[in-house]
User: What shape does this take?
Amino acid sequence: MTELRVSVTEEKFPAARPAEPRSEVIMHYDRDRSIPSIIAEHAAANPTSVALVFEGRTITYGELERLSDRLAAYLIREGVQKGDIVCLFVPRSPETIMAMLAILKAGAAYLPLDTTFPIEHLDYVIGECEPKVVFVDRETVRTIRSVPNARGAVVDMFALLQKLTVAADEIRPEVTVGGGDMAYVMFTSGSTGRPKGVAIAHRGIARLALDQNYIKLTKNDVMLHAATIAFDASTFELWCALTNGCTLAILPDGNFSVARLRDVVGENGVTVALLTTGLFNLLADYPGSALPSLRHMFFGGEVASVEHVRRFQKTCPDCRVTNAYGPTEITVLATTFDIPAGFDGNDVPIGRVVEHTGILIVDEELRPVPAGVEGELMLTGDGVAIGYFKRPELTAERFVTIEAPEGPLRGYLTGDLAVLDENGSARFKGRVDRQIKLNGKRIELDEIEAALRRDPRLADGVVICQTLGPQNKRILGYICPQGGAAADAAELVRGVMERLRNALPAYMIPSVVTVLDQLPLHQSGKVDRSKLPLPVDAAPTATVPITNQTEAVLLDLWRTVLGIQAVELDRNFFDLGGTSLQLMRIHAALESNLGRPVDVVALFEHPTISGLARFLDDRAIAGARAMSPAERAALRRKTMSQFRGSAS
Assistant: This one.
């Protein structure tokens, strides 16, 4: 159902959205409708309204509809049929969003992949999904050609869309797509040793965006798009904006920093944003200039920090702040909690369920337990995924049906422990398994261990998560060489780490790896992880020979951010276990300390304290070698693919 209203509004940010009479189309949730059909109504009512903003470019709803129609017609001509998979191995951009919409119009599902994923990971995922088409750009095509299982048509998406822009209008063949059809497959870490693809239906997305209790979007809103397309936060950003007739402001993929994030928010009048908890905390610590346009900030992915919420609310007192919870299998969000000003609790609840969603706390026999009793959190409703792609056994294990008063009820067992209060608000109490969250990324420690055990040089390998501080965790690895003691432990670690980086996303790589002759065991024969020796880097091994004030500043920043003291001036930041989010924290603190902007690419070019200090001291930022945007993006992808922890 839709409502059609015509109104004239005074635009607060005319550069982003033209001030003109427009029809306001209010869409209501219909579980049987497809995402393209909803967006088409906005395009028909307001063809000149701005849908996408990117580095000064604007794409209207009419242009988005027309170009995605042409691209959908191309896909159908190329043999893409309903239910097929089309892979997106491209960065954030307007063209990427056009391609997503076109794929859905063709009746297919999109498979978004992070452009920094290693070859072995890409090979497994692409081999599992067998996409008919793989969209690339001039940079990523080189990577995809190295993937053995990339047998579908490899197409330069940007070059193709340039041709389609000047092509004659073409009527897209009609493909009947409903709410229950698959819209995308998104891969998450898997406890069985391999990543698993979550298949999401159109209705899961529509239920997230329409007739909701946790958010009210209007045609005047501008949504930030800052998540990598392989992270399910992008689902919220893209489709909540476009199914509500809003503008989507896209953060460029390269040169990502807190300052750049603030600039995009300020320049485009962003009103709504969803950030990972780590990135939200970073924004709270380094608020910079005021962001008056921002009216609603969501964050989630890890346990909330009350102190960071208070800092953010002090800087942005008029902005509503919401803690959001939800696994990929429930289509991004399941519960939310609006944090009031002056909140004085010790921990932030994950809150009450959003519309079209149900929540239960169940015991080991899958029987619902009453309020106040801890158990496993089970989620139901239209956001529940179709299942795990081509994994029927795993689907049957996690997507279960229980008997309820209203009849059989299908839901997803999250593996999260929680408790409901009398008002139906949930509090997170931990995990029932070995899954962790690091920088907003879901990581199954068992998958890392399985990758270690595939290394022929090792008799065994295990990993644990070490907490260094309230907001600082890292993965520690322990390996046992084949045949007992290693002849050269350092060389073994280097080889094992290189193999891991070729097999796993960078955010799953252990920060420190320790070689042991054997692992400590319980009497039962299982590994006793409590007896694994912690690294000795918590304290400095020797006095670090500081030569100037810049090195002293950087050393202090590295120690604080990494949570370790044993930092050498010539050690690579990423080899010490640093992640991209931690590097962003160092970048923000460095700019604050120096009182001047620092190009974030410099931190990737000079990843040691001594090298970065020389760069900062010897070369003024304005005098640095000029790099084109393409060079900077290529450098960032190369560096991050080798070392980084988590993308923005």
User: Anything to note?
Assistant: The first strand starts at residue 2 and ends at 7.
